[in-house]
Amino acid sequence: MEEYGHMEKVQEVVRLFQITIMVKNIIIHLS
Question: Is the pTM of this model over 0.70?
């Protein structure tokens, strides 16, 4: 059960990271 929770946390961080990269790319394209 603990491992599953850990994986969920990792996926959350990865999702945030991907969103950050997307936003950065959008800003680069707009500027």
Answer: no
